[in-house]
Amino acid sequence: MGRTNRLSAVAVVPQGLEAAAGDELSALGAHAVKPGRRAVSFQADMACLYRLHLQARLPFRLLRQVARFPCQGRDDLYDGIRQALDWERWLHPSMTFRVDVTGTAPGLNHSHFTALQVKNALVDAQRDLWGERSSIDLDDPDLSLHLHLGRGEAQLSLDGSGGSLHRRGYRAAMGAAPLKENLAAGLIRLTGWDGSQPLVDPCCGSGVLLIEAALAALQQAPGVERRFALEGWADFQPDLWDRETDRARQRRRGDLTLPPLLGIEADPTIADQARANVDAAGLSGVIRICTGAFSDHPLPEGPGVLVCNPPYGQRIGDEAELEALYRELGNYAKGQAKGWTFWLLSGNRNLTGALRLKAEQRIPVSNGGIDCRWLHYDIR
Predict the structure, then answer these.
(1) Most buried residue, 116, 150, 344, 358, by CB count within 10 Å?
(2) 108 and 115 in contact (C-beta within 8 Å)?
(3) CA Rg, the chain, in Å?
C-alpha cells in the first residue's frame, strides 16, 4: 500500500515505556515510529490502525490525526475546527461528542476554555447545516475528539478507543493500589520473558503482572472482545475490521503449554481477587495463585524470572513494616532463586536498600503519577 494511504497517528503510553511501545507498534506494522514523552508518533494505513487497536498492549489511547492548521489564538482555532473535517458526514446532531485538549496557544491557556471554543465551532457548524446540535457526553460519546496545541499549530485527532485501552475487561477485582494492565504488559516486555521459563510473583496482589505475561505469551489480543469508538467513524470499513479481528483471534496460541506461572499473596481476600481475575482472563489452567507468605512457597525448577510490585509506603503500608518485607524479599531471592533474574517495581529508594541486592538496570517509569524504577537484579 502506498505512502499516500497512510494516516498520521499518536499512541499515548505510560511514561518510561515509550521505546518499548515504539517496538510494539513497529512489530504490528506501523511506520515512521518516533517515541516522544508519554507518546509515540507513527504512520499507518487503516488496516494497521485497526490492528493496533485490537492487538497493541502498551497504549492508553490511539489518536488518528485528521487536521493540522496554524493556530495563534481563538479565531484561528474556531475557523480551523470548522474546516478540519466534513462535519456533515462526521457529526450528525443525533450523535454525542466530547473534546479533550492538551497544550496551549496565545489566549488558549486553559484546556476547559479551549475545549469550549472547539465545541462552539462544532455546534455553530451543525446549526448552520441542520438547525440543531449534538449533545456532549463525557462518558460514552459517539465521537471523541482530541486537540493538541503547540508551536503555533493545532492538531485535531479522533480517539479510536472510546475508553482507555488499558482496561482489558478481566479485572472486576482490584487491590488498593492497582497496576494498570498496559503498564504491567510493558514491564513484562522489558524483562524479556518469552514464555520459556517459570515466572513467579511473590507479592502478586490482583495478579496483573502474571495475567499480562500469560496473555502476551499466548498472543491473545487484548481488544477482540470490546467495542471501539472507531466503529462509529464515518469512514469505518466493516470488512477490513472483520478481517483484522479474525486475524487477531487466530494469533492466539492454543497449542502452547507454558511453564509454571505462580502468584503468591499473603492476604486471603486479595488472593481470591487474583483468582477471580485469572478466571475472568480465561487463564485458570495457566496461572496458579497461592495464599500465604512467599517464604513458605518453594520456587519451581529454575532458572526463571521473579517479578514483583510490592507496596512502596505511599498508598499502602507502613515504612518500618515494609522494610522488613523488602528484607525478606531479598533473602528469599538470594536463598531460593540462584540463577534467576528478579525484577522489582520500586517507588521508594529507602525500601529497596533493604533488599541488599545490587541492581543491574534501573528503568524509570511512572506508575499512577509515582516516579518509580523497574529494577533488574541477577541472583547469583
Answers:
(1) 344
(2) no
(3) 23
Q: 10 Å Cβ neighbour count for 342? A: 27
Closest CA to 363 of 378, 353, 377, 350: 377
Amino acid at 366: S
Provide the 3-class DSSP secondary structure of residue 338.
coil
Q: Is the pLDDT of residue 104 over 60?
A: yes
- What's the chain's average pLDDT? 93
For residue 107, the number of C-alpha atoms closer than 13 Å in the C-beta half-sphere is 9
Q: Cell digits for 347?
A: 517507588
Q: Identify whether the C-beta of residue 183 lies closer than 8 Å to the C-beta of residue 14.
A: yes
**For residue range 324-370, what is the model confidence (pLDDT) as tens digits?**
899 999 999 999 999 999 999 998 888 899 999 999 999 999 998 88
∠ CA 171-368-30, rounded to 5°: 80
**CA separation (Å) from 217 to 4, 192, 309?**
35, 11, 20
- For 280, phi and psi rounded to 5 degrees? -65, -30
C-alpha dist (Å) from residue 201 to 104, 278, 310? 43, 14, 10
CB atoms within 10 A of CB 171: 21
Distance CA 168, CA 174 (A): 13
Beta strand 39-44 pairing with 7-12: antiparallel
Sign of CA dihedral 65, 68, 74, 79: negative
* Contact between residue 315 and residue 177 where contact means Cβ atoms under 8 Å apart: yes
Is the pLDDT at 3 greater than 90? The verdict is no
pTM of this structure: 0.93
What 8-state DSSP symbol labels residue 33? E
Number of H helices, E strands in the chain: 11, 15
Specify whether the CB–CB gap between 223 and 330 falls below 8 A.
no
Please report, rounded to a whole number, the percentage of residues in the chain having pLDDT higher than 90: 84
Distance CA 286, CA 259 (A): 8
